[in-house]
Amino acid sequence: MARQALKIPGPLGQRMRGRWRLSIRRSLLPAVRFFADVIPRLLDITVAAGLLLVLSPVVLVRATASIWQTGRLFDAEDLVGRFRSRIQRLAFAGHGPARGLGVWLSVLKGDLAMVGPRPLTAAEAVAVPAADAVRFAVRPGLVSPFGVKRKVGIAHVGESRLDRDFVYGQSVKGDLGLAARSVLNGILGGDGTGRAMPRVLNFFGIPIQNTSMAEAVDWLMAASDPSDPGRRASRQLAFVNPDCLNIAWRDADYRDALLASARVLPDGIGIHIGCRMQGLALRENVNGTDLFPLLCAAAAQQSRSLFLLGARPGIAAAAAEHMQQRYPALRVAGTRDGYFDAADEPAVIEQINQSGADILLVAFGAPRQDLWLQQHRQALKPPVRMGVGGLFDFYSGRIQRAPVWMREIGLEWAYRLLQEPGRMWRRYVIGNPLFLYRVWRQMQAPERFALPAAARAPEIARPAGVAGMAP
């Protein structure tokens, strides 16, 4: 009987032990949810109360000034908060400094959190699709994941997706990190509010499209459309960062290749800072590394084919394989490494043309890739051609990209410098300050760096808010 008793499921049996563990987990779940909600709220209260206490003399002066100027203490903006409740974002009434301190009273009240999705107006909240309503499960924040990325022009995936990722992955550590990154990237001049946003930027007489990532992808799809009567026109696209513009300053052939391109797009935090120096706003950092997956997604959806040329043997093929796993409908017409000499060029061009590719991506590095495309513009048949630098290295896995938090504070260049100091130190340690010095020189004598007449376009105003909730 004793032996039989041991066979009966019980505290010493595996099945019962598993049930106990599941029971314990279920009993702890409400406690976990409670602390996950309470701890961030306690942190909000602690920070808001501490800040208002430390700045209490400023708060008292500001409150007195508000009553003196307007007869009221606060201006309140009606917004939609957690669970779609009506909330108010407070600011001290009147004009002058320190008005924004009033918002910390909204945090104390519980209408806002330090970190959360951007608070919406009633009209914006009504337009939020049901699939994105999870954003209303948490308090909106003074700092939002979308806002942090927008400040450095890398909010490419859309506000809704960033909000969803935030809600499902929220933690105290993550909130503190996001708040810290918001403070750090504030030195870049915010999101451009109050500054002119021209359609075309002028750096050293080279016209650079001040556009968004979505518009750039749309342009690529339109330019490679088989039904487009202008499909056979030469449409070369180039990305430029401060290093590229430094090269164009002294290399006339490269400068001419950029001027002959259908579009030149801004790549890198240095362009953002250069715009700020000129009192302008950069709409987005339209770099090739972030554009590539969006391009692949659009190409898969609209039946465009890509040809990847460049990098070390096997790298382009590995990058193509990775993207086809990510987007199974993506058509890669062919790949070829960049290790060939002049005698092999006719065969390489023939391989590209025979592939029937709609878009050719060339990863030789600047300025070689742009010069090569310009040199062979008559022989190449793909309707859209673009130089993409070291893009294949990232998507093949050969080189690791900077963590997101470094990109959010504009320090991706520092990560690249740490990865390859011997190759990158001149570009960043010498090149970045040299670029900013040359921007200053352009500002002193703008007539020397006038844009070609065809590239000039009227300025567009900075939108007052965020247009819609991009997917």
TrEMBL record:
Start and end residues of each Bacterial sugar transferase domain: 105-183
Classification via Pfam families: Bac_transf, Glyco_tran_WecG
Species: Thiohalocapsa halophila
Protein name per UniProt: Glycosyltransferase
Keywords recorded for this protein, A-Z: Glycosyltransferase, Transferase
Keyword Ligase recorded: no
PANTHER family: PTHR34136, UDP-N-ACETYL-D-MANNOSAMINURONIC ACID TRANSFERASE (PTHR34136:SF1)
Family annotation (InterPro entries): Bact_transf, WecG_TagA_CpsF
